[in-house]
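Notes from the 1:1 (GR / supervisor)

We went over the backlog. Supervisor wanted to see one worked example end to end before approving the batch request, so GR pasted a single chain during the call. The sequence is below; no edits were made to it. Supervisor asked that the structure be written out right there so they could see what the output format looks like.
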Amino acid sequence: MPANCIGLDIGSSSIKILQVKRTSKGIRLLDFGIEPLPAQTIVDGSIMDQSSVVEAIRKLKTTLGIRNKRVATAISGHSVIIKKIQLPQMTADELSQQLPFEAEQHIPFRKDEVEIDHQVLSNKNASGQIDLLLVAAKKEVIADYTQVIREAKLIPTVMDVTAFTVQNAFEANYDANPGESVGLINVGAAISNVNVVCDGTSVFTRDVTVGGGAFTDEIQKRASIGYDEAEGMKISFCEAAPGSAGVPPTVEAVINEVAEGMAGKLQRTIDFYLAATADASLSRIFLAGGSARVPALLRALQEKARIPVEILDPFRRLLIDETKFDMDFIRAHAAEATVGLGLALRRPGDHG
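Structure output shown during the call:
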């Protein structure tokens, strides 16, 4: 059985690498690290500055002493389309021939511009048709991600979708009740990935153009300071108690205001799913990503959703050698490790 891939999360604000090993006692954490990226290196999931990404990957790989070269990474944003569709009953061969033509009816790109993948959700639904999850990603974006991985002297092996990696991490650490629908929201720097999961199946996904960078941008604008200083204030706010002397009242007010706006956009996406799906409900929501640690966002979303909202802990069930890892670092950056873990659980040859 092949070893797991390296989980390489190429985010808008940082690179995360995570590596695990499956053992008879459970999943063991081997490596985890983060390397920041300059602002605007990645915009809406597209790599704008390849050299900065390559340099960050190489630096992190060297720091961690990574030897495994096989990489699983993920993409998101407007270049990725995920649709749940229904098709008449047909054989697997007929489906593979028909899918490119069906995809063209559901995606805003020409079929020669995208790579297409799919997962059969049900071979026979209540209407006697096939339920299918269709995924299409622009070839040029896949090529860009593949190129930076190769330039970093690694081997691109698995290309995933960010929303699904969060589901992998969730299922490795949490149990859901039969029939329970859970909302998984990964709050990235610029894009948030929403995935509703029921009985291990993704029933709704959407990328929302809102992210943690909005906190930093608004602090920078209101306080007339540089990006790095504004980012530092945001992080200090996350780490400090509300109303503490270390957080200027204006920063707290800005963060609360931005959190309200972000929570509103995320809740509208959830409301769309609930309105469009018969008998749909959500029992709880899990937040991942660096800005999941902003208390005001969790609080605002919980008030709007009126169901429990908590931060997803990707290390909850992992075996971690506390003599090897800085546990303060692990705890502080757990939310940022979620996508990396979901990728690190993939193996060469996995479908998807």
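Supervisor's comment: The CA atoms of residues 272 and 278 lie 12 Å apart.
Batch request approved.
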